[in-house]
Design brief:
This protein is mainly β. The chain has one domain. Helices cover about 5% and strands about 40% of the residues. It contains one helix and eleven strands, in the order E-E-E-E-E-H-E-E-E-E-E-E. Strands 1, 2, 5, 8, 9, 10 and 11 form a seven-stranded antiparallel β-sheet that branches. Strand 6 and strand 7 form a beta hairpin. The radius of gyration is 20 Å and the shape is globular. About 20% of the residues are buried. It comes from Adhaeribacter arboris. This is Phage tail protein.
Length: about 170
Amino acid sequence: MAEYTFGMAKILLGTPAGDGGMSTTLTEKFGYTKPDSVSITSEEGTKSEIFIEESDTAIISQDTPGAKRVNWSTYNTAPEALQAAFGGTIVGTGAAKVWNSPENLQPVIYSVRIEDKANHFWAMAKVQVVPRLNININKSDAGQIDFVGTILIPDKAGVSPIVRGYLS
């Protein structure tokens, strides 16, 4: 019987395990996920072909797969969310609380687990995540943080870059 992935339930993040496998301490860091922003994709790769003058058919053809990505966006732009995403500092309290961005943005390595509303999960043990500010100051949309993650090969042998399973 066919199965489907439908509706994001939550996104959990954590530091990869010390042995290079999937994090064992995943938490929901941001919440307020923008509708229809969550995706796991494989980009189109490249094809290299070598031709010779005597033929219109390649004598060598090499395919290189494209990068695998996980992307999502959050409407949570609270100082704590901005600090968790970008680093920087928070000073003050209450109405005087402000977030100060760092001078340079550093990508962060996370384990990422996405749970859907069809009782499945997608787990990626090692993802290099780059956050991006996308602050709309208008009446038709809200400011957000966009996360672009590149799925990497885990450091632990035998761990797949992407795992799909069932929630218990």
